[in-house]
Amino acid sequence: MVMDITFQNVAYTYQADTPFESQALHDINLTIKSHSFTAIIGHTGSGKSTLVQHLNALLKPTSGQVKIGQRVITPETSNKNLKPLRRKVGMVFQFPENQLFEETVVKDIAFGPMNFGVSAADAQQTALAMLDLVGLPQNLAQRSPFDLSGGQMRRVAIAGVLAMEPEVLILDEPTAGLDPAGRREIMGMVAKLHQQQHLTVVLITHHMEDVANYADCVVVMENGTIAKVGKPSVVFQDVAWLQKQQLGVPETTAFALRLQKHGFKFAQLPLTETELAQALLPQLPQGMVARTHDE
Amino acid sequence: MTALTKIIEVEHLNFRYPQTEGRPALSDVNLAIEQGEWVAIIGHNGSGKSTLAKAIDGLLPLDKDSGTIRVAGITLTEDHVWDIRSKIGMVFQNPDNQFVGATVEDDVAFGLENIGLPRAEMQVRVHKALDRVRMTKFAQREPARLSGGQKQRVAIAGIIALQPQIIILDESTSMLDPNGRIEVLQTVRQLKDQENLTVLSITHDIDEAASANRIIVLDDGEIKESGRPAHIFQYGERLIEMGLDVPYAQRLTAALRRQGVTVPQQYFTEKELVDWLWTLHSKM
């Protein structure tokens, strides 16, 4: 099913018409295509979290409209009947393991579907299937979620969102606070969900490597609006601008720029170490390169 | 410069959490840290890193068979635990869990009130501490309204106001965004030089580990390896199991080898790798 999400002239003001009013978003025009992988980057306070909370109508625009699949959300939209939408657009908040509460892993994962009216038996079956999807062994099902490691707890929380069978998965810094191994596991899992389950993924991140490795579109937020949007391979070409915003670029891109100053040439700056290594091959003496390597 | 003195000495440390079976959390850990040294402790989750830090700060119920811990020459016993804690400041992972004051300066003053310092001296120390972490401008602010990096800097100010000899960073940068991480590391680096502090940092962050004079690798509660960052970073992909990322130069040399390029088996810093590559390129 097509679930494009389109923002049209969206603005959002917190505590409007009070002395505490503050504008968090303005002039947002954006399309997130069905089945795409969109990364949202920007400083703390740039509006990233406010933006994604419009994707499932947790927030409604103060002006403008958001179209999510066939649903149009405007400032006048009633809070009733938003359940089907919330089911289609799953949201994984920061540190989602803080929201675990049930006695067992399987009960925690089944909670969401049961809340949406699925029978206990069916919800349990779905929950067990979700364990596979997030790469947790079945023998954890009856354990307390609080006995698990940080990375495992986080996957249980994500499984709870996936149990609602959403078409769009929003993740707000899903790897924050994890060690590098945990970070790899979670990002590998997200990539798999995108490729195999064909989920639309929207990822808020500070890791430019993740943007380079996984995203097909990147949105740069600044002071409540979109400063740049496009393919990572295009957006990351403007290294000077991104560094001026103190957002940084993938390590490969920064490294390629250093090499460029020493006479190396790149048609466009690479984003991953494999791309860089390939671009360097023809620029190194023949004797350095083994002839028999498999492509 | 004064002669090197050992400020932390750990001998044959063993510890098992009460009511647990299987492996002990720490087994036969031996460690000596010089005054003014920065030591990073790495290891995957559950390797015993935080347990070791807690043991040094006297936060674990150690018994007679647990081994010996000496801090600044004082042997850790129930009678001396407060003497030892007064020499150590700990910065924890979550910046939101360590605030007690309504304003930034109240928060920094809290520890000083606890030790009953006269008000005049307290004010001087609070000022100086905030200045050291470049947070003077925020003295009257509510801690909750600061960024993650600012919060951790206030936490550090609260610690240095107490004039410890050792700072332990227990994953203190892991919840911060990249700018916050850089802010905190710069602050620690500066303080270490100005106050001749000893820094013990438990970390998964490659930049933090690279800042250290020495890296110690813990696994299953045992010290598996100890050496300069350049030595430890040679482990390449295996660093992931040790709870660290692979440094960029190592990732690129691996990618070059996959493309068939002959790269010498040695550790390259990023600068060394740039130099090696452009020297080759200039010979073409």
Automatic annotation (TrEMBL), chain B:
SUPFAM superfamilies reported for this sequence: P-loop containing nucleoside triphosphate hydrolases
UniProt domain ABC transporter: residue ranges: 8-245
Compartments where located: Cell membrane
Chief location bin: membrane
Gene3D superfamilies, A to Z: P-loop containing nucleotide triphosphate hydrolases
Cited CDD domains: ABC_cobalt_CbiO_domain1
Record-linked Pfam families: ABC_tran
Membrane topology: Peripheral membrane protein
Record-linked InterPro entries: AAA+_ATPase (IPR003593), ABC_transporter-like_ATP-bd (IPR003439), ABC_transporter-like_CS (IPR017871), ABC_transpr_CbiO/EcfA_su (IPR015856), ECF_ABC_transporter_ATP-bd (IPR050095), EcfA_1 (IPR030947), P-loop_NTPase (IPR027417)
GO molecular function annotation: ATP binding; ATP hydrolysis activity; ATPase-coupled transmembrane transporter activity
Keywords tagged on the record: ATP-binding, Cell membrane, Membrane, Nucleotide-binding, Translocase, Transport
Gene Ontology terms: cellular component: ATP-binding cassette (ABC) transporter complex
Lineage top rank: taxon: Bacteria
Similarity comment: Belongs to the ABC transporter superfamily.
Name the UniProt record assigns to this protein: Cobalt transporter ATP-binding subunit
